[in-house]
Amino acid sequence: MTSKPSICIISPGLAAANNGNWQTAKRWQQMLSNQNHYQVEIMLQWDGKPYDAMLALHARRSADSIARWSVKFPDRLVVLALTGTDLYCDIAVDASAQQSLKLAHRLIVLQDQGLKNLPFAYQNKAQVIFQSTSRRKPVSKTKQKLRALMVGHLRSEKSPETYFAAARVLAQRPDIFLDHIGAPLDADLGNQARQLAAEVSTYRYLAEQTHSQTRARIVRAHVLVHPSRMEGGAHVVMEAVMSGTPVLASRIDGNVGMLGADYDGYFPWGDAQALANLLLRCKNEPLFLDHLNAQCALRSPLFEPRTEQAALLKIVSQVN
Prior knowledge:
Elements: E1 6-10, H1 20-33, E2 39-43, E3 53-57, H2 63-72, E4 77-81, H3 84-93, H4 95-103, E5 106-109, E6 126-128, E7 146-151, H5 160-169, E8 176-181, H6 187-199, E9 203-207, H7 211-220, E10 223-226, H8 235-241, E11 247-250, H9 253-259, E12 266-267, H10 272-284, H11 286-299, H12 305-315
Parallel strand pairs: 1-2, 1-3, 3-4, 4-5, 5-6, 7-8, 7-10, 8-9, 10-11, 11-12
Helix pairs in contact: 2-4, 3-4, 5-6, 5-10, 10-11
C-alpha cells in the first residue's frame, strides 16, 4: 500500500503566537489532511526530513528552510505564501526574501491586489488564494450605541495609534465604544493602550484573547476597525465579513484586495479624524451601516472554506 504524500508547512508563528500565520498554517494543515489527502506537519524551520513538498509562509522568515530544501531536494515542490511584510517591504529590500521568490516553484498571494506588487518575472507562477473561515450567525445589535472593535497585536504594522487617536476624538460621545484586542508586542504601544483606557472611558483595552473569544466579540460588534499600514490579507477582515460585521479599513492594497475597490468603508491610512467621522456616520446613519454590511456580504463567497481548500489541493497536486 502506497503511503500518503507528505507536506511540511513552514510557519513563522506556532500556536503560542496566536497570530495570522499560525491560523493560516493550522487551517491549511486541516484542509490538506482532510479526507486523507496528505500527511502534513507544521514547523518553524524545516527539520531536514524528506517530505514530498514544502509549503512556506513568509519569504524572509522561511528563507533558510527554503534554501536548505532547494539544495537537498531541488525538484521537490516549494510553494511560498506571501504575507504583508513580504509583499510591501521585504521583497524590495531583503536578499533572502528575494532568493525565496526565485527558488519557490509556485507563489500564493492572499488578496487580489497582491499580484501587482510582485516583480513581473514572478507573476506567472503566482495565484490568489483567499483565506477562509466558517460563517457565524449574525446577532441582533442595539441601535442605542455603537460598539467598534479593533483586533490586532500591538505593533507598528497594525497602526494602533490611529485607533487610539480616534478614541480620543470621540471621547465625548458616550454612545460610541471602542474595544481593542491584541497582545502588547510593542511595549510602548501597550503602555499607550493602558493609559488611554485609564483616561477615556469609552475605550477598553482587552489585551490578548483566545481565537474563539475574539470571534465571539467580532460577532457582537457593530463594526470592525482595521487601520493597518500594510497587510497581506488579514484574517480578521474576512472573519468579520463572515460574521455579519462590516469593516472600516485603511485604504491600502491589502484591505482593498479583500473588500473590493468600490467598498465605502475606507479611510486614508493614519487619518484618525476620517476614521472618527466614519464611526460617527455608522452611529448616526443606520442605513449607512446596513449598506456596508450588504457590500461585505457580496464579498463573503470569496472566503468560503471549500473554495480555499479546492485551490490549495490544486496547487499542491503535483506532489502525487
